[in-house]
Amino acid sequence: MKEVKPFVTEQDRQFYQENGYWISPKLIDDERIEHLRKAHERVWAKDFDGDGFPLTEWFSNGNPNQLRKVDNTWWINDEVRDMVTDPLLGEVTSALLETDEVRLWYDQIIYKPGVGKDGISVSGNVGWHQDYVYWQCLNTTNLVTVWIALQDTDLSNGCMMVVPGSHRWQLDPSSHGFEETDLPALRNKFDVNGRDWEEVPLVLKAGQASFHHSLTFHGSGPNLTDKPRLSVVAHLMPQGTAYLNQGHNVDNIRLLGPRVQNGQLFDNQYFPLLYSK
C-alpha cells in the first residue's frame, strides 16, 4: 500500500453520508495489482497458502462463463490477507464511518468472466441487492464494502453500479438479489413508492477502490470484453459491532464460538483489527 497522508476530507465524508458510496484515489501500485491478479489465479487453481480452506467457496463448477467468488479468502492466500487487513483501508473506513476502530467482517475475491461463446452473456451479472439483507446478525447497518479494482473497470467489463441515496431507504427484506441476473426486473421490483432510482456506474482505474454502505442498492451487468474482471473485496465493520439474533445467521457466526450470545463482540482472531485510533 502506498504511503499517503489521510485523504478523506470533510467533503468526502459528506458525499459518502449523502450518497452511500465514495470512490478513492488509487490505493495500490501496479506491482501490488499484479501480485493480486496472480493470487486470483492461484486461488482458482486451489493452490492455497497453508493447509486450510475458505469458509465458503463458490467456484465455477466446470462452467468458465459463471461468476466465481470465495469468502474469507484471507484464510488461504497471503496476498489477499495483506490487502484486506491493510491499515490504510481501516483508516479510510474509520473516517467514512466516523468510528475509532475498524475490523474485517469477511472478504471476497470475485471473478467476472468475459463473454462466452454465446456473445453477450448475463451469467456474470450481479443482481440489485443490499448487503445488509445478508448480514442481519449484526447490530448495526453502519458497515462498508470496499471493492478494489485489479484492472480498469467500467461498463464495458461489468463495473459495479449503485443507486445514490438508497442507503436512506432502510432495509428491504426482499433485497437479496445477488444471484439473480435480470437487472431490469429487479429494478421494477425495488423502484417503488416514488423512490429516486438513478443508476450510477462506478468507473475505476486499476488500484482504485469504491466504498459503499451496507444498505446501498448495487449490482453489475455483463462483462462484454474477452478478459475476466477481477476484484478483491473487504467487508468492514466499526467499533462495537456485535451479534444480534434476528433470525438471519450466516456462516461467520460460528466463528464466535459454540454458544454465541446477543451482544457478543466480533473481536477475536477471525475478525482482524485493521485500524484503531
CATH uppermost class: Mainly Beta
Percentage of residues in DSSP E strands: 15-25%
| Count of the domains | 1
Order of helices and strands: HEHEEHHEEEEHEEEEE
Q: Based on helices, strands and strand pairing, what is the structural class?
A: alpha+beta
Largest sheet: 8 strands, antiparallel
What is the gyration radius calculated from CA atoms? 18 Å
Query: Mean of residue pLDDT?
Result: 91
The best one-word shape is globular
Supply the CATH architecture: Sandwich
Count the helices. How many?
5
Total count of strands: 12
Oligomerization: single chain
Helix content: 10-25%
Verbal overview:
The chain has one domain: Jelly Rolls (Sandwich), CATH 2.60.120. 18% of the residues lie in helices and 21% in strands. The chain has helices spanning 10-19, 30-44, 78-84, 87-97, 183-190, and strands at 21-23, 56-58, 68-71, 101-112, 126-129, 144-149, 160-162, 200-201, 209-213, 218-220, 229-238, 273-276. Residues 1-5 have low confidence and may be disordered.
